[in-house]
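Predict structure. Chain length: 404.
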Amino acid sequence: MALSLDDVRRATAAGAEVIRETPVLSTRTLTERTGSTVALKAENLQRTGSFKLRGALAKIAALGERCTAGVVCGSAGNHAQALAYAARARGVACEVFMPNGAPVAKLEAATGLGATVRLVGSTVEDAVAAASARAQEGGLAFAHPFDDPDVIAGQGGLGLELARQVPGVARVIVPIGGGGLISGTAVALKSERPEVQVIGVQMRERATIAASLRAGAPVAVDSGLTIADGIAVKRPGALTLSLIERWVDEVVLVSEDEVAEAMVFLLERAKLVVEGAGAVAVAALLGGVLPPAPSGTTVAVLSGGNVDPGLLAEIARRHESQAGRRLVLLATIADRPGSLALLLSLVGERGANLLDVEHLREGFELHVRETAVQLVLETRGTEHADQVERAVREAGYPAPQIQR
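Prediction complete.
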């Protein structure tokens, strides 16, 4: 079916009093790195932490009295939170199905918003199928996470905002999972400004849209775990695929490592917490996969910020190690009083900060009067880490091993 600008406007109006107009933030660092003006659409600051609330409110409004018995959906987490929030705002009961292994933060958030949460299967597709079956059995209204005209029209409100907020917008880069956000955004933007380019970004490991565009029909792509769980959709929808074919200019792919670096970049430089799925547009720019527009403003959409703190900490630690700001030192010392103090004094004199120390006596070929110690050190960068490593080796410590 066709989706029009009027459809987007009506859907946007239905949730206008609940939706937060999220800011467009300038980014000097990204602008300097890419050589063109880049801005960030911080949809991670939307209520419920993602763009999904736009489509959820539009769907409940379109259902009207048909959702009197309640609404139900299947989701990796963001759509579940959004539907729970929208249902509570409209006084409607809500059930959500999520796959086993869904991020704890998203599960707890949906529960906290009053939804009945059920875990089923291992993929978003399993959750959506279970939710659809529950709707038929229990007389509930089913809200598909992306392949639904009302949901897509609601997501298009982001495009309307961008057209108003960024008069000089030339290119908009949008994460793609099932395709609802980019479809609605492209319809809204390009209907008003046909010259604006809308480009989608998917994970290389989950390139469902790219594969489906080549095939001319939705195809499934299997993959393992990804840090971008919010866009880890096995198969795009028929409706979203047709809209992407009609309205989207290009689809590019990024890797897990590029997304991890983008998450840390946004945390360090923009002070924004963004989940993997929400960081793929910035990953495309930082990794050189996609250049910004040569003139005008390029907007990277940060589609969500619902990330488990544990995962974010792991990604940050990994980045610290790669940047030379985290050094793991394994050395053999004499097993007698004062030996460890001498080693710690050595690294301390070189300006390294001790984060952790552990004695390791098993799994090594050690003299009966020796022990191995592992030090986790904070350093000021690669050059400083090299100085610390060199000092330890020159001090004659047996078999020092360095990991960064």
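Summary: The longest helix spans residues 124-138.
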